[in-house]
């Protein structure tokens, strides 16, 4: 039995036209993720108050997860033979997520992180749509796992704030 491929295989199955929207979506997601990651570290180092121990630990767990996801995103861009955005200047220019200072109250830090997650969720779905359009099921699966984790964390922060 003979089978035929449905895609022209170049750079693991993606033509340049397929790759451009994927790389764009991933670079925008990465830029937002980097700013979010740095905010988590900022808040981890600078949180104060009665919830310090809980929030301090949660921020650390979240920036560790963000770091891993950022690495996966950059490596996926490299799979396509492209270069991921990688400078702070690019991150800040491309990101919808904005930096904050170090003087926020714990509640406001959590509100910021929750808002960032909503922004990240949107960019993850944009990248999933690009992956579906290009037929990149590996990227689609990777991003869907990110979404599941992010949405669970968003729910937990929402529960924390419901007091």
Automatic annotation (TrEMBL):
Entry-linked Gene3D superfamilies: 1.20.1260.10
Q: Which residues form the Ferritin/DPS domain?
A: 24-162
List the Pfam families hit by this protein, alphabetically. Answer: Ferritin (PF00210)
Record's InterPro entries?
A: DPS_DNA-bd, Ferritin-like, Ferritin-like_SF, Ferritin_DPS_dom
Q: Which domain of life is it from?
A: Bacteria
As for family, the record states: Belongs to the Dps family.
Q: What is this protein called?
A: DNA starvation/stationary phase protection protein
Q: Which organism is it from?
A: Mangrovivirga halotolerans
